[in-house]
Write a structure and sequence with these properties.
The structure holds two protein chains of two kinds.
Chain A: E1 3-7, E2 11-12, E3 18-25, E4 35-41, E5 47-54, E6 58-61, E7 69-74, E8 79-84, E9 93-100, E10 105-108, E11 112-116
Parallel strand pairs in A: 2-11
Antiparallel strand pairs in A: 1-3, 3-8, 4-5, 4-9, 5-6, 7-8, 9-10, 9-11
Chain B: E1 4-6, E2 9-12, E3 17-24, E4 36-40, E5 47-51, E6 55-56, E7 64-69, E8 72-78, E9 86-94, E10 97-100, E11 104-108
Parallel strand pairs in B: 2-11
Antiparallel strand pairs in B: 1-3, 3-8, 4-5, 4-9, 5-6, 7-8, 9-10, 9-11
The chains are: A mainly beta, B mainly beta.
Chain lengths: 118, 109
């Protein structure tokens, strides 16, 4: 059974760089054919796609976040990560990592709450 | 980024049928957008119900079905149950990425 688990800081200060990690168990990146995705949800709001990495190759980012976002894969640790620079209060959200088959997310992480506050 | 539209809220009676839709502010949704639907209850991670227009995820009851209806994707719940009361999000796939709809809050009453 494939499982994803997010980890990282729960509290950030404005202007800092957020780094979140998603640890993958029950699967590896070598299998191919999957998009490794980050999604967030602001308090009381809907889901927002941040971006995805296709097997360590192509990356696609939400245009509204593109200048601040990097999604990368570390195959040696079976992890993928999200880096978001220059955070503000508007980046306060629950962040989900997920595996997508391009046509639907087949595995969701449980989510991690990140608060940005001075 | 193209805006994806959903009904903000809908209600259905227990045992009834309801259809949620997912469209673009301009243009048509097609199977080439691989529409997907997920369900979320408060405090929980989303759960995918439908892949690529009409494929049910493992363990999803067959009262949930997906389709293309006119120029929109649709999720139909037939024989609604109390625990179907949730937020539902459609997801559309495009050349430049993925877009979520704003979500539909479904009430079963």
């Amino acid at each position: 059974q494939v499982q994803l688990q997010e980890s990282g800081p729960g509290l950030m200060k404005p202007s800092q760089t957020l780094s979140l990690t998603c640890t993958v168990s029950g699967a590896s990146f070598s299998g191919g054919g999957y998009y490794w995705v980050w999604i967030r949800q602001h308090p009381g709001k809907g889901l927002e796609w941040i971006g995805n990495n296709y097997n360590g190759g192509s990356t696609y980012y939400n245009p509204s976040l593109k200048s601040r976002v990097t999604i990368s894969i570390d195959t040696s640790k079976n992890q993928f990560s999200l880096t978001l620079s220059s955070v503000t209060a508007a980046d306060t959200a629950v962040y989900y990592c997920a595996r997508d088959i391009w046509g639907g997310v087949d595995v969701w992480g449980q989510g991690i709450t990140v608060t940005v506050s001075s | 980024q193209t805006v994806v539209t959903q009904e903000p809220s809908l209600s259905v009676s227990p045992g009834g049928t309801v259809t949620l839709t997912c469209g673009f502010t301009s243009g048509s949704v097609s199977t080439a957008n691989y529409p997907s639907w997920c369900q979320q209850t408060p405090g929980q991670a989303p759960r995918t119900l439908i892949y690529s227009t009409n494929t049910r995820a493992s363990g999803v009851p067959d009262r949930f079905s997906g389709s293309i209806s006119g120029n929109k994707a649709a999720l139909t719940i037939t024989g609604a149950q109390a625990d179907d009361e949730s937020d539902y999000y459609c997801v559309l796939y495009m050349n430049n990425g993925i877009s979520f709809g704003g979500g539909t809050k479904l009430t079963v009453l």
